[in-house]
């Protein structure tokens, strides 16, 4: 089950906690993985951790339109002509209360979290359609469904990702391409490590599982959606949140 | 039949999985050859690749029949 031998994957934001775990999990299932992110050294370190085999390093700043346009062609070249699995994982936050949310903070978050995912999906789906198989998996967030005070821009981008994925899913379902989202809840990453004890306590009160999730929990969901076994699952959002929101 | 016409018809027949004799100049992709809107986009992509040219959206919208595609490509193919 869930064997990805011979498949190729492009993972954005691979230097982050969740992206790194996704890259490792896809690789462990046999896929050849192109890892993308802004920091080359961190990507090289990840590639070394993967043993340097079946891995390609593709630095890219998703805030730059030109760099985004080049990423899928570069990945296709590095991966032998095709990207079977695209994981739109990269994301940034520029939190602020709504009345203080600047145009710049809005635009940056929409550009990196939503527009880049659109452009990468549009580029990758061409070859997937031709090959009559493919997986597009976008990492959205629980806040894209529930909203979150202080994250108007981030929640809008993440909700946008879900609507975009459902639309694309309908267009390409007949061609063997599935398009899904994974919505993590609170996951232990460097970002949540920064929380103090009090913040952590109040978050955990809202999680029936009474603990933070791990990047591996998200990676496992990603492996499933990437697999042949998930061929009949499309347009869905898989919530991985310890029961924090049951939607 | 020109070389381009022959290649266009071959691509259409292969892509839509229809018999070669059905692929006439007057055949409409959607009405006669059973294509859906996604097929037409894929066909345009296939033409672009085969003939190494770009078919802009407004031109693609006017390519409704096999003959339309042949005419466009005879004028614009590299």
UniProtKB/TrEMBL annotation, chain A:
The keyword Acetylation does not apply. Keywords: Fatty acid biosynthesis, Fatty acid metabolism, Lipid biosynthesis, Lipid metabolism, NADP, Oxidoreductase. GO terms for molecular function: 3-oxoacyl-[acyl-carrier-protein] reductase (NADPH) activity. Gene3D superfamilies: NAD(P)-binding Rossmann-like Domain. It comes from the Bacteria. Pathway: Lipid metabolism; fatty acid biosynthesis. It catalyses: a (3R)-hydroxyacyl-[ACP] + NADP(+) = a 3-oxoacyl-[ACP] + NADPH + H(+). The keyword Zinc-finger does not apply. Its EC number is 1.1.1.100. Pfam families: adh_short_C2. NCBIfam families: 3oxo_ACP_reduc, PRK07231.1, PRK12826.1-2. Homotetramer. Belongs to the short-chain dehydrogenases/reductases (SDR) family. Catalyzes the NADPH-dependent reduction of beta-ketoacyl-ACP substrates to beta-hydroxyacyl-ACP products, the first reductive step in the elongation cycle of fatty acid biosynthesis. This is 3-oxoacyl-[acyl-carrier-protein] reductase.
TrEMBL record, chain B:
This is Acyl carrier protein. InterPro entries: ACP (IPR003231), ACP-like_sf (IPR036736), PKS_PP-bd (IPR020806), PP-bd_ACP (IPR009081), Ppantetheine_attach_site (IPR006162). It comes from the Bacteria. Carrier of the growing fatty acid chain in fatty acid biosynthesis. Pathway: Glycolipid biosynthesis; KDO(2)-lipid A biosynthesis; Lipid metabolism; fatty acid biosynthesis. The keyword Heme does not apply. It comes from Xanthobacter agilis. The modification O-(pantetheine 4'-phosphoryl)serine is found at residue 37. The lineage of its organism: Bacteria, Pseudomonadati, Pseudomonadota, Alphaproteobacteria, Hyphomicrobiales. It is found in: Cytoplasm. Belongs to the acyl carrier protein (ACP) family. 4'-phosphopantetheine is transferred from CoA to a specific serine of apo-ACP by AcpS. This modification is essential for activity because fatty acids are bound in thioester linkage to the sulfhydryl of the prosthetic group. 4'-phosphopantetheine is transferred from CoA to a specific serine of apo-ACP by acpS.
């Amino acid at each position: 089950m869930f064997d990805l031998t011979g498949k190729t994957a492009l993972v954005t934001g691979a230097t982050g906690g969740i992206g790194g775990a996704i890259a490792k999990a896809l690789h462990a299932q046999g896929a050849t993985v192109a890892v993308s992110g802004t920091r080359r050294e961190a990507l090289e370190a990840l590639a070394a951790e993967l043993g340097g085999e079946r891995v390609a390093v593709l630095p890219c700043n998703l805030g730059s339109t030109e760099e985004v346009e080049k990423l899928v062609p570069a990945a296709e070249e590095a991966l032998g002509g095709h990207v079977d699995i695209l994981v739109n994982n990269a994301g940034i936050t520029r939190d602020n209360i709504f009345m203080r949310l600047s145009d710049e903070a809005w635009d940056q978050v929409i550009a990196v979290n939503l527009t880049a995912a659109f452009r990468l999906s549009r580029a990758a789906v061409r070859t997937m359609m031709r090959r009559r198989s493919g997986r597009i998996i976008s990492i959205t967030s629980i806040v894209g469904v529930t909203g979150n005070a202080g994250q108007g821009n981030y929640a809008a981008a993440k909700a946008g990702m879900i609507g975009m994925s459902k639309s694309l899913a309908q267009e390409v379902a007949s061609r063997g391409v599935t398009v899904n989202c994974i919505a993590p809840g609170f996951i232990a990453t460097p970002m949540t490590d920064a929380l103090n004890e009090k913040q952590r306590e109040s978050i955990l009160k809202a999680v029936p599982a009474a603990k933070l999730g791990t990047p591996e929990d998200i990676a496992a969901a990603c492996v499933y959606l990437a697999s042949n076994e998930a061929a009949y699952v499309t347009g869905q959002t898989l919530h991985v949140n310890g029961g924090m929101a049951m939607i | 039949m020109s070389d381009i016409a022959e290649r266009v018809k071959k691509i259409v027949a292969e892509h839509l999985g229809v018999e070669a004799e059905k692929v006439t100049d007057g055949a409409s992709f959607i009405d006669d050859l059973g294509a859906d809107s996604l097929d037409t986009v894929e066909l345009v992509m296939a033409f672009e690749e085969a003939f190494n040219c770009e078919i802009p959206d407004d031109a693609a919208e006017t390519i409704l029949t096999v003959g339309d595609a042949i005419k466009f490509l005879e004028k614009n193919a590299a």
